[in-house]
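FIELD: query
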Amino acid sequence: MNIIGDLELEDISTDEGNSETSYAALPPAKYRVMISRASYVATAAGTGFRIPLQLTVIGGDHNGRTVFEGLNVVNPNETAQLIGKQRLAEILDALGIERSDFTNTDQIEGGVLIAKVTRSRIKDAAQREKYGDDDGNENGVARFFAEDGEDKKAKKKKKAKRETKQSDEDL
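FIELD: result
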């Protein structure tokens, strides 16, 4: 027998309107998020690989809420694969990780960045029932950015360009 200690459940709200536990899709906006989970897994069809991400909102009215995003990084559909690789490159750039140094999803777990979150209605009724909120909506991520709005790789390029310009002027 497993004995559970005092969990102090008396003051726990189970109201549907409780924003901390709401499953309603987030409003579309830019959110500061932490990558709380990332892995590299085979696709359901077994024809490629994807990186499912669990993003946790940090701060604001939606603090603690979760957004899920999947990056198709190896996929027979070239468009899906390109989009997945673009999003992964955005994440790496935003976190200041050299693309050529990326070898493991552990490198991005715990990373904090800005996610431009979208909300859309799921068209397929079965998918809507399975994955949608009460209104049939789901969140996605359109873009990822560094916390200061500019990726660290772009900053390095600008700095190098300024230094080159300065050294040219000094000659």
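FIELD: remark
The first strand starts at residue 29 and ends at 38.
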